[in-house]
Amino acid sequence: MAASKLPIGAALGFFLVFALIWVPSIRADDDGGAAKAAAAEAAAVGAAESSALKAEVEQLRSKIQVLDSFLNEKTRELQTKDKVLAEKEKIIKEKLDKVASLQSEVSSLQKKGKLDAAAEIEKAQARATELEKQVDKLKTDVQSQLKEKEVLESRESKVEKRMNELNAKLENVSFQ
Predict the structure, then answer these.
(1) Which structural domain, as residue segments, surrounds residue 63?
(2) Is 172 in a helix, a strand, or coil?
(3) Of 72, 70, 6, 14, residue with least CA distance to 42
(4) What is the rounded CA–CA span in Å between residue 137 and residue 119?
């Protein structure tokens, strides 16, 4: 922004030096035409500078609107990801509870002693094998969901970092 003001400032400075050199050469018998011309030229330079500043302000306002829109979009994305994470955590908790329940059931079946021990043991072992397969499957599901959760948290962290950077830029633009 300072670089864009430099040519305007240089032009204004040049104009002032020119005016200081030229104004003393105006004679007393001059009808004021030269003074009017100098005033008109100063007004034209001021109008050009004002127009440039207005354009720059409009450009900055446009940038602020774009950044605000981007910020709102990222906020919505974060909220959506938070909901997804909460759902994933709920599913993980349910599956962990089911794993614990199945392990408890396996333990309970293994402790029971019945008269028909051979048949019961065979049924229990079949059930235990089936339950162990289910436990293994659930553990695999839980692990994959934990990995997915980590990926989502990593993405969320990156988005938050980017959002903080954009907020800082937005604040810098707002204060300039």
Answers:
(1) 2-175
(2) helix
(3) 14
(4) 27
